[in-house]
Amino acid sequence: MPDDDLLVLAPYIRIGVQDRTLFLGFGSIRQAVLDRKLWHPLVRLADHFRHGRTRAEALSFLRVTCDVDESTAQASLLMLEHGHCLIPARAYDPGDRYSRHSLFYTLSGASPEHVQARLEASHVVLIGCGGIGNLVAVTLATAGVGALTLVDADRVETSNLTRQFLFTEADVGSLKCEVLAREIGRRNSECRVRSLPVLVEDRAGLRGLPESDLILLSADSSGLTRLVNSHSVAAGQPWMNACYVNDVAVWGPLVVPGLTGCWDCRTLAASAPEEDPELAALIADVNARYQAPSNGPVNMLASSLAALDALRHLGGFGVPASLNRRMGVWSHELMLDGQSAQRALSCPTCSHVTHES
Questions:
Q1: What is the per-residue DSSP string for 17-59?
Q2: Domains in the chain, ordered, with CATH?
Q3: 200 DSSP assignment
Q4: Count of helix runs (H) and strand runs (E) in the chain
Q5: pTM surpassing 0.90?
Q6: Run of H or E residues at 15
Q7: Do the Cβ atoms of 225 and 243 come closer than 8 Å?
Q8: Cα–Cα 20 to 30 A to 95, which of 11, 18, 158, 165?
Q9: What are the pLDDT digits (tens) for 253-275?
Q10: Per residue in 93-144, pLDDT tens?
Q11: CB 331 within 8 Å of CB 302
């Protein structure tokens, strides 16, 4: 019998009873089973699948050994299959570098081999290697993204060490992109990392960056957001923003030209009133002194959620939360917020763009 025909219970499956309900799996795949006549067949079938079995063997086990009627046997097996509870017998290798991620992709209903191959073939350009860039870069690299280009002209400062965790006191004064590249190489030597210590501040600077599958912007300059957006839309290149607004961890929108809205489709950030130059000048004077209250945990929230969406997009599993939305976690109130970034047919930047699959 070919091993490919054998199924086993996925390692992430747990079973429990609460409030007179049997829960088969937890998290997004949780199935609540109220019908008690299914409890014993389901649990016995799950136990049976701790070793490799075919579907035919499983149904025979329920009918013969458990004395279960045909409809109950079929319903029990379907519940395990539809809930992503069963995986091919050889799909999980605990010794593989990406084995735990593979379980996550399976949990999402995707083929781990397909996802990992897509990630390995991907190239991400990361503009900004600070608090968010640090963690996004190492998350993507250790997940198996094949190539990263790190763009940042800044040097490590002592005040960075509260949140830019891949830097140490010994790195103060060194270029951020070079230190980050070094640290990524220590964690996944298979990731091809290039550091570019340049300040990107205009279209020429963006055009000088290498082609990639995704631009992830995590730099401080607010004016750079619209610049990256217009560049990416014109080049047909997906991009995503990740930042924080005081206590709010922000990521998105994930812009896929021709498929989603872009930064200019909706008003996503406050600005000075163009119709009142005097007030606009005063606002500019006040804002010139702004210093962001950057905080490690808020940075980590934005970084991890942006990295997860980047992996979803690059790996082709699940649905990125920031597609057509700018997402935010308000850390003081622990509240999830979302701004619509749906495509506007009148958008001057992207209305003319069509998607090419």
A1: EETTEEEES-GGG-EEE--GGGHHHHHHHHHHTTS-B-HHHHH
A2: 3-88 (3.90.930.70), 122-340 (3.40.50.720)
A3: -
A4: 11, 13
A5: yes
A6: strand 15-18
A7: no
A8: 165
A9: 999 999 999 999 998 888 888 89
A10: 999 999 999 999 999 989 999 999 999 999 999 999 999 999 999 999 999 9
A11: no
